[in-house]
Task: structure prediction
Amino acid sequence: MSERVIKDDQPRVHFDCNKCPAFCCSIYERVVVTKRDITRLAKHFGVSFEEARERYTVDFEGERVLKRVKDKIFERTCMFLDQKTRGCSIYHGRPAVCRSYPGRSRCVYYDVLRFERSTQGDESVIPLVKITFHEVEEEIEQYADGPERIYEWDEKDKD
Result:
């Protein structure tokens, strides 16, 4: 019996996410979590497994997923996204799927920006950045008396 050697020729890619508006925390409707992830959340917050499961996750079509909240840039996002810094508020306690994203591939935001740059000058294409800033302006006007963090659970996730 001969041994098979699998060589990984694809280089690991490192991303600097500091200038990203947290695209990955918003484009996925569900971030599936495992029992190990919930245990990690419980340890991070100093609560029981059951309490972490109840506070931070919801059942979505038979899977346990992180709860989502209203967002000032994107419609909804992960409840642990810091709205001001656009960074993860539980970075050391984040789920495995977040730890491994984007893996060895490019992140989605990179592809969006690349597409926008390739279509500059094409008036039939409206860049995402313009749409995003327009939505933020509307959101700022809506909360002119002072922004507040809103924890509004998505009712459809409870079905």
